């Protein structure tokens, strides 16, 4: 018996780390069914890994048309399954995932809880409100409430199962479907993807320039095997590309280690990173709000502190 529907997060034929986190969190509801929307053969290629993390069933909505339309195929598949089975829906809290969750909730007449960091067995969930100022617990109403899970907030735990793969209908495009006509790949380099990275090194206005990111932030990130992030102030000043912005209007991260260099800690930025397990801040202003949530803080010149730290990291 399926107790929750989990939308499998994948790109270019590769499972994203968030899928294991989703399946782990979903077990609070009971037995999860993994929903795969993709091209023919995608579900079979993922079956072993999905089973390893507890998927009791794999529901495959596959077609050569997969990937040609934005969001609507996933929404329509989930709405059909949720309406039939009357169970909750769980997706990753990416930009697309939040949109999917909202649409599914609206179309099933159920509630939605966004960017949750913990799910409990009574269908309640823990999440932040007011830009991260408060952590609250709430419950989704209706037969099929939708939840979007913040990447990195749950440690994946294996729970071996042997799921069968069941084909379900891939919905035909309609007049509301947005067709994707082309892709322009983002240049991410060899660093980890920001929302999935275990370590993130971010720079703020205090980095002062694009050269500051290249000379101070990126070397530390590379020494740690980390992703690079940036505050909105740094992005608005053209110090770093917008795709790396962390915060309420950017990406939400929850790494094991978050290093904030020259970031004051505005509420909008804290909303995107405050669930990080360990926060290290370097800022010359001892009154900077970032120190309120930092586990370790250094009041000093980041252009002196960070390069010295980077050299010590390289020696380790």
UniProtKB/TrEMBL annotation:
SMART domains: ETF. It holds the Pfam family ETF_alpha. Signal peptide: none annotated. The keyword Electron transport applies. Its cofactor is FAD. Binds 1 FAD per dimer. Keywords: Electron transport, FAD, Flavoprotein, Transport. FAD binds at residues 205, 231-232, 245-249, 262-269, 283. PANTHER family: ELECTRON TRANSFER FLAVOPROTEIN ALPHA (PTHR43153), ELECTRON TRANSFER FLAVOPROTEIN SUBUNIT ALPHA, MITOCHONDRIAL (PTHR43153:SF1). Belongs to the ETF alpha-subunit/FixB family. The electron transfer flavoprotein serves as a specific electron acceptor for other dehydrogenases. It transfers the electrons to the main respiratory chain via ETF-ubiquinone oxidoreductase (ETF dehydrogenase). This is Electron transfer flavoprotein subunit alpha/FixB family protein.
């Amino acid at each position: 018996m399926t107790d929750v529907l989990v939308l499998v997060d994948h790109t270019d034929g590769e499972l994203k780390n968030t899928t294991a986190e989703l399946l782990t969190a979903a077990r609070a509801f009971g037995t999860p069914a993994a929903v795969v929307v993709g091209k023919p053969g995608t579900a079979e290629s993922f079956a072993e890994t999905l089973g390893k993390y507890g998927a009791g069933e794999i529901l495959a909505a596959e077609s050569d048309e997969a990937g040609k339309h934005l969001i609507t195929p996933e929404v329509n598949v989930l709405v059909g399954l949720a309406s039939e089975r009357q169970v909750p829906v769980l997706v990753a809290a990416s930009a697309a995932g939040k949109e999917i969750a909202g649409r599914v909730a609206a179309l099933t007449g159920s509630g939605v809880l966004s960017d949750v960091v913990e799910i409990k067995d009574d269908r309640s969930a823990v999440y932040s409100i007011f830009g991260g100022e408060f952590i609250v617990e709430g419950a989704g109403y209706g037969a099929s409430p939708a939840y979007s899970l913040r990447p990195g907030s749950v440690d994946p735990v294996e729970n071996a199962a042997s799921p069968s793969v069941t084909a379900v209908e891939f919905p035909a495009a309609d007049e509301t479907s947005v067709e994707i006509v082309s892709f322009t790949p983002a240049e991410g380099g060899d660093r980890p993807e920001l929302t999935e990275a275990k370590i993130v090194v971010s720079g703020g206005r205090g980095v002062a320039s694009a050269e500051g990111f290249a000379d101070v932030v990126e070397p530390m990130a590379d020494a740690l095997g980390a992703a690079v992030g940036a505050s909105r102030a740094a992005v608005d000043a053209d110090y770093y590309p917008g795709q790396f912005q962390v915060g309420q209007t950017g990406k939400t991260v929850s790494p094991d280690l978050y290093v904030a260099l020259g970031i004051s800690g505005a509420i909008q930025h804290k909303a995107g990173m405050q669930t990080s397990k360990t926060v290290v801040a370097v800022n010359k202003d001892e009154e900077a709000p970032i120190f309120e949530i930092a586990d370790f803080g250094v009041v000093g010149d980041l252009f002196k502190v960070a390069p010295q730290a980077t050299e010590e990291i390289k020696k380790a």
